[in-house]
Every structure is written in structure tokens, then in C-alpha cells.
Amino acid sequence: MSLKFVAAIVLCIVATAMGAVADPTASQDLTARADCDVDSAVPFFRAYSTSATDHFYTTNYAEMKNAITNLSYSYEGNMGLIFRIPTVSTALLYRLYSPNAFDHFYTTNQSEANNAVRELAYYDEGAAGYVFQTEICGSVPLYRLYSASAMDHFYTTSETERGNAISQLGYSDEGIACYVMPGL
């Protein structure tokens, strides 16, 4: 056995013998701090291509720069902050692409992602990042919309932009895709 392991056992035995009791709120506080540690969150950039009628999102600045410089996308800002690596309370945001529809599709639902690949001819492009699945730590909804006529998925944190896309641009509301930290 390692010396650290033996020391930990001895410490537990001594604490128990002395009548030490764990403070239940202490672990809750630690969990809350871990859940809301957003120091490693990065911008989730958004761009749009009028020629492809496609919204594109990424955390990778070089990839966004390439889309703008070489692929006829226009930068539209960032949709909040997400994580490049998993953290406490986050879920994988799948990134998929259909070359037939010129559409990027993002979801936290693995079954939905698998179905898009198997049945709808999307390619799995890996992880877009990691996001919250519930509203915690001051996060905001990332709304998901879809235009069947344009074959375009559209994501926004703006309720005004969401409402305009539904009432003026023919998008249908597909609910909340996930929760992200508010943008810079």
C-alpha cells in the first residue's frame, strides 16, 4: 500500500474516534463552485454563408477565420461561452454537417446525432464543445430553430433574434438546444 493511502486511512480513523462529523453543506458548496467554474469557457463563434444558406458555429478561431476568408461566411458574433473540454455538469455538443443540404446541425442528444448520420446523410464532425443541459451558473438558453425551405439550423441566445427568425424568416422553433454562459 502507498504511504499516502495509509495516512488517509489513519486520518479517517482518528477523525471518527474523535467524533468528527462531516458538514453536509461543505460538500454542496464545493460542488456548486465546481459546477460554476467557467474560467475555461471560450467564445462560441457564429458565421453565416448566404451562398450556402448555412449557419456555422465553432470555438476554434482559426477555423472561423478560414470560413470567413475562404468559404464565403460572414462573422456574426459569438453566441456565448462554452467549454472545449468536459467540465463538471457539462454535456457533449455534437457537431454534424450535411453536404447535401449545406447545413450544420448541433445537438446534445446522442440518439438524435446518430439518427442524423444514419438516416439524414449528415457527417459527424466531432465535438463542437461542452455545454450545460440545464440552466445553472447564470447560463442562458441557446435556442434551436430550423428552416425547412432553407434547410438551415439556426442557434441564438437572443430572444429578439429568435422571435424575428420565427415571425419574419420562416424558421420553426425547435426549443432549447442547451445552455451557454452569456457572451463577452
UniProtKB/TrEMBL annotation:
The keyword Signal applies. Residues 1-22 form the signal peptide. Residues 43-181 form the DUF5648 domain. Pfam families: DUF5648. Keywords: Signal. InterPro entries: DUF5648. This is DUF5648 domain-containing protein. The lineage of its organism: Eukaryota, Fungi, Dikarya, Basidiomycota, Agaricomycotina.
